[in-house]
């Protein structure tokens, strides 16, 4: 089933893209949550027209791409977003968000699909995102994801928080793997015990010689 995404959806696609998804996934998740709409021919045609209009504002030559690269690398985009005490965002910053901010703040159109951002940003901090502007022309976008109503702590503190969270995740993963291994070992032990044939206890085998009757 084809749908048009209304929001960026992790591992599915970016807002405005036409994607093929399982009918059940569309009916039970994407459509009820208004993350997508059914891709009718009229809506797809309108979308294509909009994309063509946007493309006219993107780099059309090597020289123009170089000029745009210089503008992009000469500034830092700022995103003020709600975040928790540990720096985890209540939401995320996606490729679409970055592309829209580039147009809003710098009046530069970049193709969000050419942003090297495999996963959306989910923590405060400073990030560098490569973007392909034209053949042999790549720029590096610098962005700051800042907690709403505050400022970024020093980089050393950001690194320490990230390292602590990474260690906690690694320990949790290791503990889960250990518990899983123990559970599998217990199951294997029970199965092996049930499949093992019981050995007859000593002394129960019949005597090779019959005892002589009394008084013989």
What's the topology here?
Blueprint: E1 2-5, E2 18-20, H1 23-30, E3 36-38, H2 41-55, H3 62-73, E4 76-81, E5 88-93, H4 95-106, E6 121-123, E7 125-134, E8 137-147, H5 155-195
Parallel strand pairs: 4-8
Antiparallel strand pairs: 1-2, 1-3, 5-6, 7-8
Please provide a brief summary of the model.
By secondary structure, this protein is α+β, with helices and mostly antiparallel strands. Helix content is 41%, strand content 21%. Strands 2-1-3 form a three-stranded antiparallel sheet, with no helix packed on it. Strands 4-8-7 form a three-stranded mixed sheet.
Explain the overall architecture.
It is a single chain. The chain has a 3-stranded antiparallel β-sheet with strand order 2-1-3, with no helix packed on it. A 3-stranded mixed β-sheet has the order 4-8-7. Helix content is 41%, strand content 21%. The chain is an alpha+beta fold and 216 residues long. The N and C termini lie far apart (96 Å).
Relevant terms:
single chain; 216 residues; alpha+beta; three-stranded mixed beta sheet; 5 helices; 41% helix; extended
